[in-house]
Amino acid sequence: MDDEAREEQREAFVAARIAELRDLSTKTDGPSLETLLSEVRNPDSEIRLATLDIIGQSGNRAAIPGLLDAVALLENEAEKKAIVEMVEFLKLPTLTELLDSGKK
Known about the structure:
The chain is mainly α. 77% of the residues lie in helices and 0% in strands. It has helices at 3-24, 30-39, 45-58, 64-73, 77-91, 95-103. Helix 1 packs parallel to helix 3. The radius of gyration is 16 Å and the shape is elongated.
């Protein structure tokens, strides 16, 4: 298999894996969350970054402890910073929470 074919195969795998992770993000069970969090440490940077984005879009605050655990295991400072920023984003109140607090 030549380099171009290998790259196409890798791209197809990455796209399929990211699609699977997007599907998992719609679930609220523990195993789905654990799978997402494990992919934050995936050797493929494209999958790692997509997973972080997927977790952020899900707004699932249950991911915060696992994200903080991942920070402790990573060596790449830019990736650590991205995860910390995602944790801070997930901690922000939602629009519903803000509206509910205004009613009190």
